[in-house]
Amino acid sequence: MSLVRNIARSYRRPGEVVAGLDAQGLREPQLLFFLTLACGLIYVAQWPGLARAAAVDPSVSFEQRMGGALFGVMFMLPLLLYGVAGLLQLGLRLVAGPVSGLRVRLAFFWALLCVAPLMLVQGGLRGIAGLGPEVQLFGFVVLGAFLYILGAGLRRVVQLERGAA
Questions:
Q1: CA 34, CA 138: separation in Å to the nearest integer?
Q2: Which tens digits make up the pLDDT trace of 111-128?
Q3: Is residue 20 within 8 Å of residue 7, measured between CB atoms?
């Protein structure tokens, strides 16, 4: 199934999508692709807010802001997210028993990729409205969607691990 269809399905049945992706035999290169694509979309989502900030405070140019965002989102964020995935695996191991790091990363990176389109919308809102209450409220919507997809994905990962054992 296509990537866009799987993302859309993840808002209704995230556990099934994660199980389907796992059944395809995904390996680390595919997970790295999911992470890189999510980070790329998050980077693009920063542009409207950075343009607004550069217009409000021209002491730091738009290009400088873009360079900083590029470094942070495309180079540092993936390293941080791999660390968070490791902590998630450790936490699941303490609560639910042994789990595969690959499956935990699949659920985590997939949830991040699924909410990236919402982050694009939030970035557009931030470019239009600044950091107003509506942008912050939409940020909670993005967080809720992420936690919903991640929670269902991790639940399915634990089920898959128990079925495989």
A1: 23
A2: 999 999 999 999 999 988
A3: no
What's the 3-state SS for the chain? Answer: CCHHHHHHHHCCCHHHHHHHHHHCCCCHHHHHHHHHHHHHHHHHHHHHHHHHHHHHCCCCCHHHHHHHHHHHHHHHHHHHHHHHHHHHHHHHHHHHCCCCHHHHHHHHHHHHHHHHHHHHHHHHHHHHHCCCHHHHHHHHHHHHHHHHHHHHHHHHHHHHHHHHC
Q: CA geometry: angle at 41 spanning 28 and 87, to 5°?
A: 45
The dihedrals phi and psi of 100, each to the nearest 5 degrees, come to: -75, 130
Q: 0.85 exceeded by the pTM? A: yes
Q: Nearest CA to 130 among 66, 46, 52?
A: 52
